[in-house]
Design goal:
2 copies of one chain form a homodimer. Helix content of chain A is about 35%, strand content about 25%. With about 400 residues, chain A is α+β, with helices and mostly antiparallel strands. In chain A, strands 1, 2, 3, 4, 5, 6, 7, 8 and 9 form a 9-stranded mixed sheet that branches. The two termini of chain A are about 40 Å apart. Chain A folds into 2 domains: about 280 residues, L-amino peptidase D-ALA esterase/amidase (4-Layer Sandwich); about 120 residues, Ubiquitin-like (UB roll), CATH 3.10.20. At the A-B interface, α9, α10, β13 and α12 of A face α9, α10, β13 and α12 of B. Chains A, B: It is an enzyme of class 2 (transferase). Chains A, B: GO terms for molecular function: L-glutamate N-acetyltransferase activity, acting on acetyl-L-ornithine as donor.
Chain lengths: ~400, ~400
Amino acid sequence: MEIIKEKSELKKIINGSILSPLGYKAGGVHAGLRYTKKDLGIILSEVPASCAAVYTKNIFNAAPLQVTKNSISIEKKLQAIIVNSACANACTGKRGLEDAYEMRSSTSKAFGISEHLVAVASTGVIGEFLDMQKIKQGINLLNPVAETCGAADFETAILTTDTVTKNTAYSTYIDGVKVTAGGAAKGSGMIHPNMATMLGFVTTDANISSDALQSALSMVTNQTFNQITVDGDTSTNDMVIVMANGQAGNKVLDENHPEWQKFIELLKLTSEELAKQIARDGEGATRLIEVNVSGCRTNEDAQMAAKTIVGSNLVKTAVFGADGNWGRVIAAMGRSGITFNPEDVTICFGETVVLNHSEPVSFSEETVTDYLKKDSVVINVLLEEGKGAGTAWGCDLTYDYVKINGSYRS
Amino acid sequence: MEIIKEKSELKKIINGSILSPLGYKAGGVHAGLRYTKKDLGIILSEVPASCAAVYTKNIFNAAPLQVTKNSISIEKKLQAIIVNSACANACTGKRGLEDAYEMRSSTSKAFGISEHLVAVASTGVIGEFLDMQKIKQGINLLNPVAETCGAADFETAILTTDTVTKNTAYSTYIDGVKVTAGGAAKGSGMIHPNMATMLGFVTTDANISSDALQSALSMVTNQTFNQITVDGDTSTNDMVIVMANGQAGNKVLDENHPEWQKFIELLKLTSEELAKQIARDGEGATRLIEVNVSGCRTNEDAQMAAKTIVGSNLVKTAVFGADGNWGRVIAAMGRSGITFNPEDVTICFGETVVLNHSEPVSFSEETVTDYLKKDSVVINVLLEEGKGAGTAWGCDLTYDYVKINGSYRS
């Protein structure tokens, strides 16, 4: 990451958040959907912002996703995002859809902005109805501010089984002006490629059209949010929304802008950082696992192999047990669906080579075990098929994952 | 199963095993690959038998699979299957392949049968070499017998983290003579469609050509062994082998035989029973989960949906926690890749309808929780797309799964 920073003049902002870019406010309150924790949050742009979104590929699209799609379809602009936790409002039929529309209209009234400029997101238990009384009261309690505490309140309000809030921000210079992107996210279980139970919100003050923003987001998502997995389950609710309000004052960005690539990197680093924070906070996780696969025929092959390895329950439990069991890495790769020569695979746990061109290597189990006990574990796999490379992130599988999910509803 | 039995005159044999069909012997010994447990077993047919096999689809094929494929390719006959546990002899390069061939030749010598009539199978840790000294001594210790204890010794010798032996046998009448099929299997972790770390051995005294047997096995495997999952990981070693030695004396079976379907059912019931025993004994499992999906466009769709649901970590932990969280069932189905109308899905836990045509139903949580605490749990899903139906089997995900796999090698 250091290298990328220098190359592109991208700078990470200390204590950065969705409020690091110009022209945004945020807040969160306890609406009463949960016992005591904040459970309703909002992000507000001073002006209608260009926007882009990606949604779950699960055939079940929860009501809030349908409402958000409707909002964006009208003018491709957003000014507010209203989010609740505790209840996903998914598989709730006609009544659930009406509730989501009502959540939108209440937000519209409370903040004096058009309904179609409001996006709605929900996360929590599937199959239960929203308590609309509480939602509406909560919306009226919201008091978004531009100060750091507004971002912190929002970040807290959107969490479910997450143990920490997720935030980041980066800045760069485009057309000589400072352009910033910030993000907040939640997601801990049901995390897998294609927008698992994950909500990601990115704000930027970049000046960019919605169409260009959508193309940037789709590309970046495939390399970041879609490359994390906690448990292989994808959810009905998840989405990533980006708002770009143009307050930075750069010339309108699109693919022909000479500094387009800089913006892509800004969005990518912001998204990657959020994705990694989600993976690290996977339910019950004690470790972030990063798998890099290189030497594949294509980048897509490498991404697929990396995702399969990092998603393997056996790899995940081996890392939890700090066991350098590379056989599980190779078994996962062998079923990933990509084509490669099984006689030429090299695997490293951190710096330690454990399989060299498909021949077992004698290595210090102690060194590997010590390495696998670290907070962040990197597994590198090298093939000899081509120049394709890709990365995926996940976490270990622990007793606490079972505990959390054996009793999530109660 | 009761219905099928009556319809087809299939009969389950009490205490049935691989020795229930005529003309087989079996045995198992402690060769010293493990501390005290038996770790080397053999099945022997009195005469060279027709055979069929299916192998892992993992791109890594362990050495014993390559040797078995070689044996079968020569004459499409087998007379012996030699199996060791503790070491998978996978990813062991040239030396591993030589070892597997030596295991075959030692068996050939010890029992006076041609090398190409011997199949070799291994299961255990990947990436370690076989101790050939112990393997060869063990082969000479083997003393296969036709009595029940021979089957029991074999069944024990092939286990790894399994907690129980797996066996079954069924019989029927074809051409007026009694035809029997029996089976043994192992498999507890790395269990997923396409021959996970699973070994299945079926003996039958049916008179059938190897080609017809192969076509029967391939068909049956897709509905049985390939429809179980423990942890989504497929292995490098797994295979199912059937030997048919013709001792029953029926007319040669093939697709044109008027009682062909009876033989298919015999093979299917035997395979299904072994597959379910494997799923029930999944690492750390406390419950067998059966998922039936019907009303799909095709049987393949139904099988795929059933397999996705039963393989979902969140469904598995919900069953472990006896939590009637149908949202996880629907989320898994929604990502299964099949096409269906999400507005018309009905889900039942046992007899209790929890989702009716995609509308949540008020149900007794207590009834469902009590049901989910049973040894065997059935989840039924009904769509309205067509007549396709399919079943898959798995188990719950528990603390013990994490425990076993966080420390398997040590």
